[in-house]
Structures are given as C-alpha cells and as structure tokens.
C-alpha cells in the first residue's frame, strides 16, 4: 500500500489514534466558507496553514489573509498551480467549493493528501457505484482519507446519534432544522430550491428534491451510526406561500408565491420510516400556512426513554457588538467550517478510504485557553 509522505501505514482500522503533532493543512478555493475555515485553522496550535489553491487567475498571488478578510497576512499567497500545492505534501486539504468535483478530489486523494469537505459529500450514497468505487480506489492508492461534514448535513446527525446513547430499543431517529433563512436565500446553494416561484409551479417539487439531494447523504450517515440497513431513501416536499409581498436577501417574493419550503428526507426499513432529516425554511414570517419556526435544531429519538434535544446557536459578544446581516451570515458559515476543522486530526489518522462519523472517534473542538489563544494571535501577526 502507498502511504502518505512521513505517515505510518493506517491500514488497520482498529488501531488508529488521532495525530498529535502539528498538521500541515491547505485550503482549496477561497469562497465564503473558506474564510471561516482559515479563521478556525489559524486558531489552532496543532495546525499550520501551508497553502491555498484558487481557480481564479485574478486571485493568484494574493495573500490568504486578504482573500479571507482577516485584517492581517499569514505569509501565504494563493496559487492556481494545483500540482505545486499537492507536491508540497500537506497532510490535509480543506475542500470547500460549492459543488463536488469528482476528478479533482480523486487527484488530491491519489497524491496522498487527506480531504475534509463541505461540498455536498458525506458517504457517497448519491454517487453512482462506479464513481464511489473510483473515489475509494484513489484514496486507497494514495493512502488517504476523505470525510464530509458541515452543520446540517453533518454535525447535527452526529448529535442525534449521540443523543440515542441514553436510550434502548430505539425505533426511530429524526433531526428537524427549523430556521429563518431570510438572510441567506440569495446564496447560490439556496437559489436552486426556487424561492419566490409561483404556487403550483410545474417541476418545483422535483427541483427542490434535486437541490437538497445532499440530505440523502445525511440520512445515510445517521443510519450508519445507528447501525440500521435502509431499504430506501425518499423525499417529500411542502410549500408555504407569502401572504404579502416581501424582499429577502435581494429576492422578491410576491404575494401568494413560495416563501417557505419544508423538505423531508426519510430512510425506510421494512416499509417504516426509521430515520428522518427534515428542514423547515422560512424566508418571511407572513406565510400560509402559518409555520412555527424553532430557530434551531431539534433531535427526537423514539426509544426507551424517548429523547428530545434542541441545539441553539447563539452569537458571541463580539458578534453582538458589531451585529449586522453579514455578521449573522458569518455564524452560518462558521458552523459549516468548524466541523471540518475539528475533524482534521481524526481524518489524518484514519484508515484510507471514505470515512464518516460512523467510523471516526468522537469529534470535539480543541480547547485553547484564552491566554494561549491571545499569544498565538500575536505570534501570527509577528510572523506575517
């Protein structure tokens, strides 16, 4: 087996331990999620940022700190030369384009570089069997691993599986994201679901299914963690309609047009729904039907006992001191980036191939005392 430069053979899945040395990490593409990834990477003393790849020639040679709006430089400039970046042999690439490029990811893995990604990939259940096999083959050839996450899909499925740990005879597990998305619907990943389309617009349900297909991967990974074999994964869609005209994140929603979308991805066994990942998104509060929005994530476990857990995400003092729509958006980007960064040590130590929360040890943040974090920030500024 080919192994990554400087790495031990990780072929035994029962004996790997999380890496403890400083890991060399590169960022792949420089969009909104990437900015929060880089902030998270530079906060960790166990990670060194060593490179950044961009697809945009106009960004080549620009400092990473400038591209990510850090207000300081890190001594790293973006490159459009993917080969040069991979030849520098980082331990891991954080891959955050909007869409998953199979050939590009195979190239990274085959070079012996691990991948953590937010680009609509967790288990590969949405890939064809040939494409999934090719991806796994590239990872095995390079002795590397690939892991996908984010908040949802991603971390919230892990939270649901952990919540089931205080119950027995579990019969069903569900995750319910219920949020106001009025500040986000102009984003490219949200545009595909068709905000503001007219009532009963032909093909809208199918477009929502296609635009949210990544949640099939969320269903699959939750089922894997609960060790249940699914016979089928299905999707249902419901709409709520604006009762008066509104503009949300630059998108016009006319009276009577779609201002709320509820999409339910379900995993079935023997004709019964056993796993559910449901999203209720509201772009305006004036809807028919009048949906209640929880502003968080609800986990429900049907078992002995039943378990219910709510995850609330709250702004920091720094957020509140400079509160704005952009600051609110940044929190959403932050919770997409953090699960990737926090998983890097475990992914670098994992056996080669596609790995998920079902195969990795429990993922948590690295606790860095404020005194140490402040010293690290000052040191980075001196180096830059």
UniProtKB/TrEMBL annotation:
InterPro entries: DAP_DH_C, NAD(P)-bd_dom_sf
The protein's name in its UniProt record: Dihydrodipicolinate reductase
SUPFAM superfamilies: NAD(P)-binding Rossmann-fold domains
Gene3D superfamilies: NAD(P)-binding Rossmann-like Domain
Domain 2,4-diaminopentanoate dehydrogenase C-terminal: from-to ranges: 205-367
